[in-house]
Amino acid sequence: MKSAKIEMNKGLLEAWLEAVHENGLPVNIQTGREYNDCNGDRTVEVLMEYDESDKMLVMGALNATINEWAGLV
């Protein structure tokens, strides 16, 4: 089992959770502390756990979610 602890904008986290649910992605997501960052945006600590064999699938889906959320695609 691989784990990654990251910080994520709350709006992005909501989009990511929706993508995980809609696509049945093999990743367990736990959220931690929320705070306002230096730009006044809401940031959330996130722990993602997934099998090493699913890493490319999970990271590819996260990348696509980020691009869509940021309006890059």
TrEMBL record:
Taxonomic lineage from the root: Bacteria, Pseudomonadati, Bacteroidota, Bacteroidia, Bacteroidales
Domain of life: Bacteria
Protein name: Uncharacterized protein
